Amino acid sequence: MQIEIASLDNTLARFTLAGASPGFANAFRRAMISEVPTLAIEDVRIYDNTSALFDEMLAHRLGLIPIKTDLDTYTTQERCACGGAGCPGCTSTYTLSVEGPKTVMSSDLIPQDPKATPVFDNIPIVKLTKGQKVVIEARAVLNTGREHAKWQPTLVCGYKNYPVVTISDACDACGMCVDECPRGVLAARGKKVEVVNGKLPDCSMCRLCERACVATGIGEEPAIRISAEPDRFIFVVESDGSLPVKEIMERALRYIKEQSEEMDHQTSEISGEEKK
Question: Which phi and psi (to 5°) does residue 258 adopt?
Fold first, then answer.
């Protein structure tokens, strides 16, 4: 199995996964979405709320604010030495006290841990008019997207098969397929249509080029064929900012490895018992 990085920064990664089965590609995708833990606000204590929002709506909006997460500092409540009571090792505390007229933003959340701040300062929470007030205390805990979508570290996480474009000798470079291609993957050069250099991964495999080719009356079979490699996939992963996208990928692969080793261990025990 090989991973070829096309582009990578803290929030977005584009890469090709080769030598893997569709099952593994999907397991990798699901692990990045639902098995990499992040911080999210779970408990909200509301001391005063005279805004236009109900307490439940206010708490819901707070829970959806992405929070910068240091996985070397925090652990889940189940694994924490405090037993889930809430200590600095598993819980980050925030306070908010704002009086209108003002739009309450995520920057108004004051964290106990300076490293566990909201990813963005400009996320609106609620608009207050003159005389309205919001005073709260919130606790963020570590969990995974399997428990709730607010703990998902990704905004976009998907893949597609790597496209294969085959052009036969019957092509007469009429250009119909070039005009139909919505992503500019094809170009007519000389007496034949070719794939534009570097544009092959952009192919959506819509097969409009095949239909256009048949419509020209070249025959019953198109001169251009679109297929896909069965063991090669193009991934696009975008982080919500709580974790660098590289760390999301690494921890997802680590999770798959741990689960595979655990399954291998259990099946070995079962086999050993059956032999006895």
Answer: -65, -40
Q: What is the CATH number of the domain that holds 174?
A: 3.30.1360.10
> Per the domain annotation, does 268 fall within a domain?
no
Domain membership flag for residue 265: no
Q: Exposed/middle/buried for 174, CB within 10 Å: 0-12, 13-18, 19+?
A: middle
* pLDDT, tens digit, 9 for 90 and up, residues 205-259: 999 999 999 888 777 888 999 999 999 999 999 999 999 999 999 999 999 999 9
**pLDDT tens digits, one per residue of 119-138:** 999 999 999 999 999 999 99
Q: How far is CA 13 from CA 111, 175, 228, in A?
A: 29, 34, 22
Token pair 């584009």: residue: 14
